[in-house]
Amino acid sequence: MPQVHGAVRDAWMQACRVIDVELNAVTDNPLVFPDAENPSHIEDQVISAGHFHGMPLALAMSYLKAAIPVLASISERRLNKLVDPANNDGLPAFLIGNEDGTDSGFMIVQYTAAALVNDLATRAHPASVYSIPTSANAEDHVSMGTNEARHVLDMTEDLGHVLALELYTAAQALEYRQDMLNAARALAERGDWKAVAAKISCAPREDRAEWTVFEQDVRSLMDALCKADGFHAGSAVQNAHARIRKHIDFMRRDRAMDGDVQKICQLVASDALLGNAQ
Questions:
Q1: Of all helices (H) and strands (E), which one includes residue 266?
Q2: Rg (Cα) of the chain, in Å, rounded?
Q3: Residue 276 confidence class, pLDDT cut points 50, 70, 90
Q4: CATH number, residue 57
């Protein structure tokens, strides 16, 4: 969603710009200009100013820190949509077959993501707005930029964990979705439009006026399914999915997930998935 992801990227680019400027800036105090032309007094060669102050970096880190839980939050919302049967467009609840009602599937993964997002949000409060004087008031206004940078570093790691949980969940959902689409195609190829209609939720009753239009829509859907050359994700998604499946198997029944979560977090941290997707 560009309105969210783009805004977060803007925060990142602003931080990069400020860091680049400050790395190339002079932070000495005072600034000494021994080669100043025609100095009339010492103040022309020795200029005391607040170049030591870290507020440019501190505010940039505050901006970036506020963006981190925003990106994590929208990632968790996508994850939640995949596991919620009321919103996942026909995928099984919590992405597990659960024929006997004993499996919880990816429910706890969403719990984990929600907890991480909540924690990130509570840590996003800006340290830069709380100045505490130091050095016997010689430094009477302090940026606290080091705290901000440290927070960003720690929070970025947890952001990676949330994104990893989304990828872990999406890999499971993708296989279910492909199976569903291919099954729908096989059903359509049988030519029995009522068999296809029976699989569609919220269909009108046969005695309603909408039934004729519904039949036409179902037949059009069957025609599109029959003409489709198989169903698969784009190449970048396929590559990323294949890399995930080298380390983590599709989950058919409940199992301990801590090992899977550690593996997907390591994959995200290593940038291996990004390289595979390109």
A1: helix 258-269
A2: 28
A3: low
A4: 1.20.200.10
Range of the domain at 149: 2-24+51-189+233-277
**Contact, 237 vs 276, CB < 8 A?**
no
> Secondary structure of 167-223 in the HEC alphabet?
HHHHHHHHHHHHHHHHHHHHHHHCCCHHHHHCCCCCCCCCCCCHHHHHHHHHHHHHH
Q: How far apart are CA 253 and CA 257, in angstroms?
A: 11
**Is residue 2 exposed (0-12), middle (13-18) or buried (19+ Cβ within 10 Å)?**
exposed
- Residues 31, 49: contact at Cβ < 8 Å? yes
pLDDT, tens digit, for every residue of 93-131? 999 988 788 899 999 999 999 999 999 999 999 999 999
Q: Which token pair is 103?
A: 């499996």
| Distance from the Cα of residue 189 to its chain's centroid | 38
Q: How many domains does one find in the chain?
A: 1
- pTM tops 0.85, yes or no: yes
